[in-house]
Design goal:
It contains five helices and 46 strands. With 816 residues, the chain is mainly beta. The strands form ten sheets. It has a 22-stranded antiparallel beta barrel.
């Protein structure tokens, strides 16, 4: 059945391509695209990329992609991967701040599952981790100083980049060491954030030759980023109690008026970030045919809090009954080795890597636990989580050489990933024993009162007041064999076909104890879950290149990501805190009851997509004007979706099918020798087309896929000119993101926003000085709500992630 479906897709794509693309190509080719060299003043910059595991250019690569050079990153004020979202069409994100961002493309949200829908690579190292850990599917905030380029590949990249790249792939390509060259570069900047304070940044690169066959390249960066969120601690005993109990499940529905409560302490700039990063690359090239490159990298983020605020009251602040900080630490180590050997007929590449990421995060759960457990007082509570993830990966591939009609690449891939977390959440010091709101007393196990800590939810003893402690190791193994080949049917017509077969095994063990577990007390509960599956990811691409200035292409491809396992959900009716049965607090969050979870969904299956894409890449007017556009249609099967229960526990399941489609366009015009205009945009329609019949699940046909903006766009004007011996540059850019449907306890729509940046500089020979500004209109945008499973889902509070306010600064760069 799958082969028949695939054949139908291929036939349909080829027929559509011949009907639509060929006539357009003939018209464009005949009217405007004579194969002429660049004009007298030169055309737009070309960037060499390796999207297809061999060197090419963006215009010559028949897939939807964008590449930005190191100069582009600087000129566009892109200092983090998150900044790319405003510059590249079709990308969206879910974020809570530094080190806590998930990326999505073409409507394929990563709000469910344990594997991201977008692959993320640093050179040859895959960094997209499967994360059962509460940190979610986030990737590191890699340092962008001394990058050679970034490559953003849109659409399924399963053949060459594997499972998890079904929405696309982001690649960061660093500058390799240079033999026989002693050079360096440095960059410093200082800026001021409205509502915050001073930011500072410094970076240094040194390239040192070692004899005739080796070179060392060292890069280091240090940043201090001002906070801008106020953390208000209310005067003792004055924090307002929530109201409207029971109309939204077992919770209080309405938060008290915290904005008018008396403030005892004002912690301004509570989300300060400190960032350090260092990497070193050693190249040894004993002959022209053999090169060996070893890389070592370390980076760390220390943040005092998250880049989010509480709603209500929506005034970009955090309100607390007690002075409880919410620090976040994120450290990352990487070791990789790349060996390349020229075998005359093909290049043999071995890419080995090991990385480890340690994340500590915390949240003040005082209000959350009061609401979930119906306490009659606020008891200070800090939820702490330690996530450790490490991965060993190996890829071995062979790539044909030359420019002949037949080219190919093939290889083997293996990865062994361990992720998990250790949580600690306990509360002590109860001094009162309020009446039981359910009227059946602690002995029945339904009463959320102080007696639960003395006697446990059942007869078990819990003297330490443990809420929820968990040790949760998770292992994911993947093996794959892949290949891709292209053949020129005619000098202007090329057919490319590829296939990847992969298998995964996943296993998880949970050791839990506490009031919020199946035992309801300090007695440990041990549970385990596992699963495995295989998948075949085919790809067919047909491209037509009538001239060096026009490429028309069509692609049919499949993408997939592994399934996963769920953490245990307390369904034991003998304990107080459980998610199944007739007690209040068990309905699906945002749904309508009574609809209860009655069994533990320990494993959820892989999801996959079929994608059809047609596009063109054209250059006009002696390559001073480019138009790259595409349109795609994706059918998403067996979607992995995070479901949040109103009792506070989440789980993943497969909720049905979805469809996403839309056009993407990027245009650049060299209007004069000094002025260049860039315009890009994407329209993304992503909705549930056939939901599964899941009781209480608030998803119906036509529901938009969460966290996907329908519209994104970017407009930029660049000026570059020489004045005597000085180079003058200026850039003004506006990015726009449309409304986003998102969900926490309730479904919400986040409003659209636009962000304006500028940069102007003057340089001479090896130095450049610049004045820059980001978010000039000081827009406070709502980016995401409760973006990871680490957030407590409750009706009274939603955490809204936001962007940095207006920031103005100066920068100085030099090369030596």
């Amino acid at each position: 059945m799958k082969r028949v479906l695939f054949a139908r897709y291929v036939r349909g794509a080829i027929q559509a391509w011949m009907v639509l693309a060929l006539p357009c190509a003939m018209v464009i080719s005949a009217s405007a695209l004579a194969a002429s060299p660049p004009g007298e003043y030169g055309g737009l910059e070309e960037i060499v990329v390796t999207a297809e595991k061999r060197e090419s250019t963006v215009q010559a690569t028949p897939i939807a992609m964008t590449a930005l050079s190191a100069g582009d990153l600087t000129q566009e004020n892109i200092t983090s991967i998150q900044d790319l979202v405003g510059a590249i069409p079709g990308i969206s994100l879910r974020t809570a701040g530094p080190g806590q961002t998930e990326y999505e493309m073409r409507g394929l949200a990563s709000s469910g599952g344990s594997v991201a829908t977008v692959g993320f690579y640093l050179d040859e190292t895959p960094l997209s981790a499967s994360a059962v850990a509460l940190n979610g599917r986030t990737v590191i905030d890699a340092d962008l100083f001394d990058l050679n380029r970034t490559e953003i590949l849109r659409g399924p990249q399963g053949t060459l980049y594997g499972a998890g790249s079904m929405g696309g792939t982001i690649k960061l390509v660093t500058n390799p060491p240079k033999l026989h060259t002693l050079e360096g570069a440095a960059e410093v900047d200082a800026s001021q954030t409205t509502g915050g304070s001073t930011n500072g940044h410094g970076s240094l690169m040194l390239n040192i030759p070692i004899g005739e066959i080796a070179a060392l390249r060292f890069v280091t960066t240090d940043k201090y980023i001002s906070g801008f969120i106020h953390r208000y601690v209310i005067a003792p005993g004055q924090f307002p109690f929530p109201t409207n109990y029971g109309n939204c499940g077992a919770y209080y529905c309405t938060r008290g008026d915290v904005q008018d409560a008396p403030v005892a302490q004002d912690h301004a700039n509570s989300n300060i970030e400190r960032f350090i990063s260092s990497r070193a690359s050693l190249l040894v090239q004993p002959s022209d045919a053999l090169s060996i490159t070893g890389n070592v990298m370390y980076q760390r983020i220390d943040a005092d809090g998250y880049n989010n605020y509480q709603a209500p009251p929506n005034n970009e602040a955090i309100y607390q009954p007690y002075d409880i900080k919410e620090p976040y630490y994120d450290s990352f180590h990487l070791f990789s080795l790349k060996v390349s050997y020229d075998m005359s007929f093909a290049n043999l590449t071995s890419a080995s890597s090991y990385w480890k990421r340690d994340v500590y995060q915390s949240t003040d759960s005082t209000e959350a636990l009061q609401n979930i457990f119906n306490y009659t007082q606020f008891v200070p509570n800090l939820y702490e989580d330690n996530d450790t993830t490490w991965q060993l990966a190996q890829e071995l591939r062979l790539t044909s050489r030359g420019e002949g009609d037949f080219q190919w690449v093939g290889g083997l891939y293996y990865s062994n990933l361990h992720s998990g977390y250790i949580t600690k959440n306990q509360t002590v010091g109860f001094v009162t024993t309020p009446a039981c709101p359910y009227g059946d007393g602690p002995s029945a196990g339904h009463c959320p009162v102080a007696d639960q800590f003395t006697y446990g939810a059942t007869a078990g003893y819990n003297p330490e007041g443990i809420m929820f402690n968990d040790n949760n190791p998770n292992i994911l193994n993947q093996k794959a064999i892949f290949g891709e080949a292209s053949y020129k049917l005619m000098p202007t017509l090329k057919l490319t076909a590829g296939m990847r077969f992969y298998k995964f095994n996943i296993s998880n063990q949970a050791n839990q104890r506490g009031l919020g577990t199946a035992s309801g007390n300090a007695t440990p509960t041990i549970d385990s879950a596992s699963g495995s599956n295989t998948s075949l990811l085919p790809k067919v691409n047909l491209s037509y290149e009538p001239s060096a200035d026009l490429t028309v292409y069509s692609t049919v491809s499949k993408g997939s990501r592994p399934g996963g396992v769920n953490l245990p959900i307390p369904l034991n009716p003998n304990g107080f805190y459980y998610c199944g049965g007739p007690a209040p607090g068990t309905i699906y969050a945002g749904g309508s009851g009574p609809s209860y979870l009655t069994s533990q969904p320990s494993y959820y299956a892989p999801d996959d997509i079929w994608s059809i894409e047609m596009g063109e890449k054209a250059r006009f007017d002696d390559r001073r004007f480019t138009v790259n556009a595409d349109v795609y249609f994706v059918k998403w099967h067996n979607i992995q979706q995070l479901i949040v229960l109103s009792c506070g526990y989440p789980y993943n399941t497969n909720v049905g099918d979805a469809k996403t489609y839309g056009p993407e366009i990027e245009m650049a015009a060299k209007v004069t020798d000094a002025i260049t205009v860039d315009l890009s945009g994407a329209y993304t329609q992503a909705y549930i087309s056939a939901p599964k019949d899941t009781p209480g699940l608030p998803i119906t046909a036509g529901t938009r896929v969460t966290s996907i903006p329908k519209y994104t766009g970017n407009l930029a004007v660049n000026y570059e000119s020489m004045f005597q011996d000085y180079k003058m540059t200026f850039r003004l850019a506006e990015s726009y993101v449309g409304p986003v449907f998102d969900t926490a306890y309730y479904a919400e729509t986040l409003g659209s926003y636009g962000l304006m940046d500028f940069r102007m500089g003057v340089g001479k020979e090896a130095w450049t000085a610049s004045l820059f500004g980001t978010n000039l209109t000081n827009k406070h945008a709502g980016l995401t709500i409760d973006n990871t499973v680490f957030a407590w889902q409750q009706p009274t509070i939603t955490r809204v992630s936001t962007n940095q306010p207006r920031t103005i600064g100066i920068a100085f760069e030099t090369k030596f």
